[in-house]
Amino acid sequence: MNKKRTIVVFVLIFVLLFGIAAYLGYGIYQRSVYEFKLASHPLRYSEYVEKYADEYDIDKYVIYSFIKTESGFDPNAVSNVGARGLMQLMETAFDWVKFRLGDGDDVTFDDMYDPETNIRYGAYMVSYLTDYFGCTDTAAAAYFSGIGEVSGWVNDPDISVDGIHIDNYPSKNAAHYVGKINQALDTYYELYVQERK
């Protein structure tokens, strides 16, 4: 009887200790996931992001999500097709935004390596596309694929049922890009806001 009771007590202690270890291990895991998300979703260049988010009436976390997705916060990033800077603007997009903003000849495509100028131009473009299409997801698709391409998509009832949202992406790359923007945005809200607008 004593031997049986000793075994039962030993098993209970083992189960209790195992439960405590599992609980602590899960807590450590959760903390490391949280720390990783914080490190990979920073609020860098906040003075410029917040300034142009206010100026162009766009959610600052949307801008952070584009920067995170486009360049990983590297102001010197250059894509294989020649897009530059934090928000990876192509020269044609730069020229278009420059014309819309009325900037003079002193602003050149080389200024896309300057964080403030790049964020100003990129934020303007995202804001314009969001207003134009009425939806952040569709704006992101247009940022990636071009306004002309996506205008055709939203006018095709097989691709867009309501003429605003894209229901059936004709481009897997665009769908993947929009998914990455949304994933980044969800993480920013999880870390800094708690609920997405």
Would you give an account of this structure?
With 197 residues, the protein is an all-alpha fold. The protein folds into two domains: 1-40; 46-192, Lysozyme (Orthogonal Bundle). It has helices at residues 2-40, 46-55, 60-71, 91-101, 115-133, 136-145, 147-154, 172-192. Helix 3 (60-71) crosses helix 8 and helix 5 (115-133) packs across helix 6.
Give the radius of gyration.
24 Å
The CATH C-level class name of the largest domain: Mainly Alpha
Number of domains: 2
- Outline the low-pLDDT stretches: none
The ordered string of helix (H) and strand (E) elements is: HHHHHHHH
Q: In percent, how much strand structure appears in the residues?
A: under 5%
Overall strand count: 0
Shape: elongated
Give a quick rundown of the structure.
With 197 residues, this protein is mostly helical.
Name the descriptors.
Lysozyme; mainly alpha; 197 residues; 8 helices
